[in-house]
């Protein structure tokens, strides 16, 4: 028994997350020198790859759409913890952190992950095919959550500035949780087939492939290591964030751009998992990851921030600015046109990637 255990410890997908956690503990709360930042960044990248590997093991065991749900919720829960931690310790400069992070997550998932998945799927099969019923429902939920939580605060008048009153924030939190819970119930219940991969004739495909599913023990081990890897990803991202902040300031970029960089790092596991699914002609799984992550990012973050606002000092800025609202509206319209046919070419993938590029550029140069 000892020999197999030692051999598992030498596997890169086991040792790297554990080493990343160890380095995280040793460097937490300390000012890092240049060489240490490089080491942490390398372990961060390794933890991302390990998270993708273990997420695929879990997904293979439980099947879809549960596998996509596991990764989306796991990443989002830890992302919420990171946001709340930074807001508690950051003071006035973090008053808009929740808004900036959630909006960045929505743009990265709905344009970056979705666009990359469609592009890879279309390059492989000329046309990327997916279930428009399930994807359309997910997109409608994301749109509603984003509008209620990020757009409405800009236009409310009970308080000055883009913020909710306590009653309005409580309403947004309850609605966000209710919508997210309803979506999960639909996705994993009576309409589960809407979120499974389909072929060019619209018939549902199996997701397990020819390989035997992992044992219960292996799946539980991968689930634990997935959580360890995700904690390492978020924690190490926070550890290197001062270096990122210094680099951003040195490049004369706005402080809010730090949130974009960290969101990109946190969402790397889902991006790589979605790309791998698209390469295997499972575009629907990729879209489940993209839209499910956007939905979880809003549906879990807003309630958590609403609860944390009891202890947080200062205003909580949630409303988007004019440029951000325009980008969100353009993303929603483009996504609807992409999703409705249930088929997409490289053109649709390219359009979404251009929208992501526009978001990153305007975040750097508002």
From TrEMBL:
Locations listed in the record: Membrane
Superkingdom classification of source: Bacteria
The name this protein goes by in its record: Ca2+:H+ antiporter
Keywords: Membrane, Transmembrane, Transmembrane helix
The keyword Transmembrane is assigned to this record: yes
Domain Sodium/calcium exchanger membrane region: 37-188, 222-362
Species whose genome carries this gene: Micromonospora echinofusca
UniProt GO cellular component terms: plasma membrane
Signal peptide: none
InterPro entries the UniProt entry points to: Alkaline_pH_Ca-Antiporter (IPR052946), NaCa_Exmemb (IPR004837)
Membrane topology: Multi-pass membrane protein
Pfam families tied to this protein: Na_Ca_ex
Molecular function, one GO term: sodium:proton antiporter activity
Transmembrane spans: 12-29, 35-54, 66-90, 102-123, 135-155, 167-186, 218-235, 255-275, 287-311, 317-339, 346-364
């Amino acid at each position: 028994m000892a020999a197999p255990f030692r051999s598992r410890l030498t596997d890169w997908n086991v040792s790297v997350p554990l080493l990343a956690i160890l380095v995280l503990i040793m460097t937490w709360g300390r000012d890092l020198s240049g060489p240490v930042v490089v080491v942490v960044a390398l372990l961060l990248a390794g933890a991302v790859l390990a998270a993708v590997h273990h997420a695929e093991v879990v997904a293979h065991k439980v099947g879809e759409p549960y596998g996509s749900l596991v990764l989306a919720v796991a990443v989002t829960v830890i992302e919420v913890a990171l946001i709340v931690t930074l807001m508690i310790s950051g003071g006035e400069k973090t008053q808009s952190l929740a808004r900036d992070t959630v909006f960045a997550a929505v743009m990265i998932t709905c344009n970056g992950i979705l666009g990359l998945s469609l592009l890879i799927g279309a390059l492989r099969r000329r046309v990327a095919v997916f279930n428009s019923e399930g994807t359309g429902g997910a997109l409608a939920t994301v749109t509603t959550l984003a509008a209620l939580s990020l757009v409405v605060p800009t236009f409310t008048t009970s308080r000055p500035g883009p913020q909710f009153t306590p009653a309005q924030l409580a309403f947004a939190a309850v609605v966000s949780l209710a919508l997210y819970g309803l979506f999960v119930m639909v996705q994993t219940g009576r309409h589960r087939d809407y979120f499974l991969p389909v072929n060019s004739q619209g018939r549902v495909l199996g997701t397990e492939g020819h390989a035997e599913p992992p044992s219960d023990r292996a799946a539980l081990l991968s689930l634990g290591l997935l959580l360890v890897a995700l904690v390492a990803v978020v924690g190490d991202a926070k550890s290197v964030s001062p270096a990122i902040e210094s680099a951003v300031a040195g490049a004369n970029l706005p402080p809010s751009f730090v949130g974009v960089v960290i969101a990109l790092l946190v969402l790397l596991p889902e991006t790589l998992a979605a790309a791998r699914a698209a390469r295997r002609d499972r575009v629907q799984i990729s879209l489940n990851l993209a839209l499910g992550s956007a939905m979880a990012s809003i549906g879990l973050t807003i309630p958590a921030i609403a609860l944390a606002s009891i202890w947080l000092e200062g205003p909580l800025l949630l409303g988007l600015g004019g440029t951000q609202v325009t980008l969100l509206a353009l993303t929603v319209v483009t996504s609807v046109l992409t999703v409705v046919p249930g088929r997409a070419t490289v053109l649709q993938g390219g359009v979404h990637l251009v929208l992501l590029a526009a978001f990153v550029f305007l975040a750097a140069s508002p």
